[in-house]
Amino acid sequence: MTRDLDFVIALPGQGVPGLVRVFSADFYIDEDAVRAAVSSQRMVNLMHLSSAIKVDLFIRKDTRYRQLEFERRKAVELAGVHTWITSREDLILSKLVWSRDTGSELQMRDVRALLKDAVDWPYLRHWAPVLDVVAMLDEAAK
To answer: How far apart are CA 48 and CA 13, in angstroms?
Structure first.
């Protein structure tokens, strides 16, 4: 198990000071790094000061797919905390994209495991060509 948490956030540039203010008491957070992440639609790290748990904030990209993925998230309660998680299909597609971009076999193993349960195949088949991961999805589904 890794000791980090991953979150996708929709954060406009004007929201950066508020985010930094909210987290700065308990986390190492660099405002310039957050601004750079927002402007490039990339990831920024926070580090919890007392536990050293790393938090990755992925800035949601402004593509139609990433906006839809964010809209499809599911409200859940985990250990008494209300939060949101991505849908199984969107997690599969994201892991395929990460694997394509990084060559990560770990992401492909995760995809194969996720495909063992019921999935919305029409949704996957619609977005796989848009994201250029059709061959990888087909391979993982074997």
So the answer is: 23
- Tokens read off for 124: 């996957």
Tell me the average pLDDT across 60-76.
Answer: 93
Among the residue ranges 4-13, 35-44, 67-76, the one predicted with the least confidence is 4-13
Both tokens of 103, joined, read 């060559």
CATH hierarchy code of domain 1-61: 3.10.180.10
Q: Tell me, what amino acid is at 6?
A: D
Q: d(Cα 88, Cα 99) in Å, to the nearest integer?
A: 16
State how far the alpha carbon of 128 is from the alpha carbons of 3, 8, 102, in Å: 30, 20, 17
pLDDT tier, 6 (very low <50, low <70, confident <90, very high otherwise): confident
**Considering the entire predicted model, what is its pTM?**
0.80
- Single out the residue of 5, 86, 2, 98 nearest to residue 46, CA to CA: 5
Residues 28 and 46: beta-carbon distance below 8 Å = yes
